[in-house]
Amino acid sequence: RAKAQGPGGMEIYTEALGRRASQMLTLRQKIRRGLDAGEFIAHFQPKVETATGRIVGLEALARWSTADRGLVPPSEFIEIAEEYGLIDAICEQVMTDSCRWIRDWQAQGAIPVPVAVNVSGRQFHNSRLLLGQIRSALETWQVSPDLLELELTESSAMADPAQAISVVTQLKDMGIFCAIDDFGTGYSSLSVLRRFPIRYLKIDRSFINGVSHSGEDAAIVRAVIAMARALGLSVVAEGIETSAQWAFLRQEGCDQGQGYLFSRPVAGAVIAGLLQTVFVGAPQVGS
Ligand code: C2E
Ligand code: MG
Ligand code: MG
Ligand code: MG
């Protein structure tokens, strides 16, 4: 906060503000240059099927590959990029990189699994641009649309549901399925949710965290699974870190899980090998 007392207070305040503003501007310029250099890439985290322990999907997560700072995580650039109108360009690079890898894994003889790319709510304002980018990425790398999915957070889906439903419907018509991400952290009206032609819900990590020790989290997760069933949707749990959490989710009939327990997000180059892994169920671990 500003040091408001004393005659010099105001100056100190504006100085601090000015410093922050110039840092933001510098970051914006760096992102622009990073975009020009094609520095935004995708890493991939597996989605594991509860019933079989097989990898049945991947989530693409943006990474900024810089010469001086190495791999920069999304927490350091997504919000800023949204603010400065650069998110579409970043998403395009992540999507194109994902399609390039899908093609590469196919060439290596890996079993194809769908890759889900995250989109921000802002990208739904300009759906023409988004749909155009998707078409061109698929075409460039000759990837079938059923191998690409999109994840949209619950809060962006519910910010303007009519618009989101329209875009999700157009995507579905193109053969691309969507998921609602971070479910439980937004405010879904069930009557609106049922109108979304989505394929699955991803239960937010914050609820998965406590399932093995908090009765409340366990009850919430059970309720989400039951609700998804009623709506004919699959459920994916994100942020699984322990075998106790995995055991709970398997027992409750959650369809898929994702988390550090199986794998952190990794570079595309190691995915073809990773896809062959079968994760044994929690009850068998260590026995
Ligand atoms: P998200 O889509 O909910 O992705 C899951 C995040 O949780 C990822 O963080 C992932 O690395 C992390 N995670 C996965 N398993 C675990 C676990 O077991 N424990 C913990 N503690 N974390 C786990 P990441 O890669 O840093 O991404 C953060 C967020 O940034 C994403 O959350 C997503 O909202 C956003 N993001 C990432 N890539 C993109 C993108 O290409 N476009 C847009 N618009 N947003 C993106
Ligand atoms: Mg996601
Ligand atoms: Mg998520
Ligand atoms: Mg999340």
From TrEMBL:
Residues 24-279 form the EAL domain. It comes from the Bacteria. This is Diguanylate cyclase (GGDEF)-like protein/PAS domain S-box-containing protein. It comes from Novispirillum itersonii (Aquaspirillum itersonii).
